[in-house]
Write a structure and sequence with these properties.
The complex is a heterodimer of chains A (114) and B (115).
Chain A: E1 3-5, E2 10-14, E3 19-21, E4 24-26, E5 32-38, E6 45-50, E7 56-58, E8 64-68, E9 73-78, E10 87-94, E11 103-104, E12 108-113
Chain B: E1 5-7, E2 10-13, E3 19-24, E4 31-37, E5 44-50, E6 53-56, E7 65-68, E8 75-79, E9 88-95, E10 105-106, E11 110-114
Parallel strand pairs in B: 2-11
Antiparallel strand pairs in B: 1-3, 3-8, 4-5, 4-9, 5-6, 7-8, 9-10, 9-11
Classes of the chains: A mainly beta (114), B mainly beta (115).
Chain lengths: 114, 115
């Protein structure tokens, strides 16, 4: 069965510092990978997605993620964190045909300090 | 910009009462999902529709939960009777069908508190 592991429950970084959120997946077929962000009490906003091609994908708000098949990973990165990036981040795996539900990790909560 | 609409945003109900949530997907999206997100966890699928048909409801607690999408557009999720453990965020999402390289779009969710 497919699964997603986000090893870090909570990460705190200083504003301006770099960020990497880890994600490992297990999926029986070709994985299609997503990162979503959720602010408190809000829905999920898509940051970026990987379907095929270049393994380094760019997303919104300056985020990027790299797909590494050999490591079954899809880590999210940002070179310089802003205070407004504080939120919950979810990695998810699913299909790409519009009728495959997503399987989510448990999330990583990001706190940003001055 | 098209959005997935959900109502209400917040709902407080007493245990053993009935509660219902409504979702209006993005126009033209044949696939609709209901997810439940317990505080501190990732969303988990409850039910998936393709048009008006249920595709997957294997994780839906059918003794108390029901979902319908009668005309293949908007959808209602009902809980009767509500239990304390049902307190969670209920998220609706929609996506195009048979379109490659597409993603699901989520609504703002309904935060349910059962007291």
């Amino acid at each position: 069965a497919q699964s997603v592991t986000q090893p870090d429950i909570h990460i705190t970084v200083s504003e301006g510092a770099s960020l990497e959120l880890r994600c490992n997946y297990s999926y029986g077929a070709t994985p299609y990978l997503f990162w979503y962000v959720q602010s408190p009490g809000q829905g999920l906003q898509l940051l970026l997605k990987y379907f095929s091609g270049d393994t380094l994908v760019q997303g919104i708000k300056g985020f990027e993620a790299e797909f590494k098949r050999s490591q079954s990973s899809f880590n999210l990165r940002k070179p310089s964190v802003h205070w407004s990036d504080a939120a919950e981040y979810f990695c998810a795996v699913g299909g790409n045909s519009g009728n495959t539900p997503l399987v989510f990790g448990k999330g990583t909560r990001l706190s940003v300090i001055a | 910009e098209a959005e997935v609409a959900q109502s209400p945003r917040y709902k407080i109900t007493e245990k053993s009462q009935a509660v219902a949530f409504w979702c209006d997907p993005i126009s033209g999206h044949a696939t609709l999902y209901w997810y439940r997100q317990i505080l501190g966890q990732g969303p988990e699928l409850l039910v998936q529709f393709q048009d008006e048909s249920v595709v997957d409801d294997s994780q839906l607690p059918k003794d108390r939960f029901s979902a319908e999408r009668l005309k293949g557009v908007d959808s209602t999720l009902k809980i009767q009777p509500a239990e304390l453990g049902d307190s969670a965020m209920y998220l609706c999402a929609s996506s195009l069908l048979r379109v490659l390289n597409t993603e699901a779009f989520f609504g703002q969710g309904t935060r349910l508190t059962v007291v």
